[in-house]
């Protein structure tokens, strides 16, 4: 049995509370499925800044580079909002993404049928929703050069950014999407703005080229404005959506909101070797930190994604997802997803229930 090393980064706010429950779940499946996973913890974000003066200490980065996978809680909070940009907690996250070249961001938007009432859309439109958005994370307009704000000859200021993707960047995110689709509904919809932006004309061409290597997966294309409309009109038509950094940023938040419960959504950011960082989609929720009421399920489901995508332990991932569904069937809810008739439980009690279901 090969040993697999997971780095645990609890972070700030509710991070330590929700990660503690996720680690209990990891330990349980590790034992049950004899996975040979070991783990150690390190500092990141505001808590790392407080201890070391850096949101991404050298020791954390070294451990992150050596790990097979990383489980992160969340970073940030009002305590650190006044800090200089270069040492803000978010820099810890961005530093991990760029140093580990985590270019492929996988964000599922799953609406458990038990939670259909939590969505702002009609239950029949969203019940059973299961979309995976694959977002390119390290390129595109967020990183393109040149960028800045300059003063023109007439004295007026002008802001500018560059939207750029090269072929290899598009090719690797395409592979990510097709590989993920093979494990699901075998359909990829590539989102572009090829009627206006040349960079996405190239995007579309490369998607077609890569699709030839995956004859079992169906590829379609959609303009981003239509995709936004279709996501709120008939979201269940999608299986995997693949898109660039900026469109993905916006569409994945919209898709997350379709489920009405950000406390339920996990995410993965992978590099070319399939190593990755796993974290809930939500932030550090400073408003409820320390109260023991945060929903740990997004972090627990992030462990399931980690087992599936980085640790080659599909059975353990399935078991965790089934346990979460079982707990929802029992009517147990943290306050963020509770409605009438539910039993409202705290963070640890929810962790206990998932462990019992496992
Ligand atoms: P947030 O996601 O932390 O919170 C938004 C709302 O959702 C809050 O009302 C919060 O209480 C609730 N919420 C979030 N997660 C929850 C959970 N697991 N259980 C129950 N309720 C939950 O977003 P925000 O308030 O915009 O940001 C707060 C801090 O988090 C900021 O410092 C921000 O920079 C940071 N942030 C970090 C990440 C990250 O670490 N990946 C992502 C987003 C925001």
UniProtKB/TrEMBL annotation:
Record carries keyword Flavoprotein: no
EC number from the UniProt entry: 1.1.1.85
Positions contributing to NAD(+) binding: 77-90, 283-295
SMART domains xrefs: Iso_dh
Gene name as annotated: leuB
Binding residues for Mg(2+): 225, 249, 253
Pathway the protein acts in: Amino-acid biosynthesis; L-leucine biosynthesis; L-leucine from 3-methyl-2-oxobutanoate: step 3/4
Protein's cellular compartments: Cytoplasm
UniProt signal peptide: none
Family as reported in the entry's similarity comment: Belongs to the isocitrate and isopropylmalate dehydrogenases family. LeuB type 1 subfamily.
CC cofactor: Mn(2+); Mg(2+)
Name of the featured protein: 3-isopropylmalate dehydrogenase
Domain Isopropylmalate dehydrogenase-like: 5-354
Transmembrane segments: none
Location, primary (coarse class): cytoplasm
Lineage, broadest ranks: Bacteria, Pseudomonadati, Pseudomonadota, Gammaproteobacteria, Oceanospirillales
Recorded superkingdom: Bacteria
Annotated GO MF terms: 3-isopropylmalate dehydrogenase activity
Organism in which the protein naturally occurs: Marinomonas phaeophyticola
Cofactor binding remark: Binds 1 Mg(2+) or Mn(2+) ion per subunit.
């Amino acid at each position: 049995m090969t040993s697999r090393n997971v780095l645990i980064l609890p972070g700030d706010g509710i991070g330590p509370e929700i990660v503690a429950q996720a680690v209990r779940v990891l330990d349980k499946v590790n034992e049950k499925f004899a996975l040979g996973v070991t783990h150690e913890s390190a500092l990141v974000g505001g808590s790392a800044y407080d201890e070391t003066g850096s949101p991404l200490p050298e020791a954390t980065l070294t451990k992150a580079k050596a790990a097979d996978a990383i489980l992160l809680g969340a970073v940030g909070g009002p305590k650190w909002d006044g800090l200089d940009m270069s040492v803000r907690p978010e820099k810890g996250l961005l530093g991990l993404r760029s140093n580990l070249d985590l270019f492929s961001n996988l964000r599922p938007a799953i609406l458990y049928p038990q939670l259909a009432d939590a969505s702002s859309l009609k239950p029949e439109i969203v019940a059973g929703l299961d979309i995976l958005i694959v977002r390119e994370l390290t390129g595109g307009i967020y990183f393109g050069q040149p960028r800045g704000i300059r003063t023109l000859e007439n004295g007026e200021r002008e802001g500018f950014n560059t939207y750029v993707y090269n072929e290899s960047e598009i090719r690797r995110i395409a592979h990510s999407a097709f590989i993920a689709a093979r494990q699901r509904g075998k359909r990829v919809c590539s989102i572009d703005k090829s009627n206006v932006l040349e960079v996405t004309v190239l995007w579309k061409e490369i998607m077609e080229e890569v699709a030839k290597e995956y004859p079992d997966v169906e590829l379609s294309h959609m303009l981003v404005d239509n995709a936004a409309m279709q996501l709120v009109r008939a979201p269940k038509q999608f299986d995997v959506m693949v898109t660039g950094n900026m469109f993905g940023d916006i569409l994945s938040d919209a898709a997350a909101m379709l489920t009405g419960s950000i406390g339920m959504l996990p995410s993965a950011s992978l590099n070319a070797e399939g190593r990755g960082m796993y974290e809930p989609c939500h932030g550090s929720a400073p408003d409820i930190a320390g109260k023991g009421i945060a929903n740990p399920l997004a972090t627990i489901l992030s462990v399931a994604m980690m087992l599936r995508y980085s640790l080659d332990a599909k059975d353990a991932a399935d078991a965790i997802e089934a346990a979460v569904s079982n707990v929802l069937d029992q009517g147990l809810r943290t306050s963020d997803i509770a409605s009438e008739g539910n039993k409202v439980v705290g963070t640890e009690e929810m962790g206990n229930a998932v462990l019992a279901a496992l």
